[in-house]
Design a protein that fits this description.
Layout (H helix, E strand, L loop, with lengths): L2 H31 L3 H25 L1 H21 L5
Helix pairs in contact: 1-2, 1-3, 2-3
Length: about 90
Amino acid sequence: MTPWAVLLFLLLGAAAGTAHYLAIAKDADLLVHGGSIMLSLGLRLGRMLLTLGVLLVAARQGWPDLLAAAAGFMAARQVVLHRLGAVS
């Protein structure tokens, strides 16, 4: 557990979180405006696997890395919501 590993997992969590929340937004758009069911299912499966993979790898490294990945993941939520105009 080095500070570099914690920083790496913070950034990895932020990247995974950004992809996760953008996929949720795209999935919601497909549901509202009518889109491909297969794309919607693919987005759901992909975001769940990505999130699970990142958090599982972080958890296996130790609690500081898991905490950093989760913090990056949750920070990405605020960034995505702000960029999409859902939060002022």
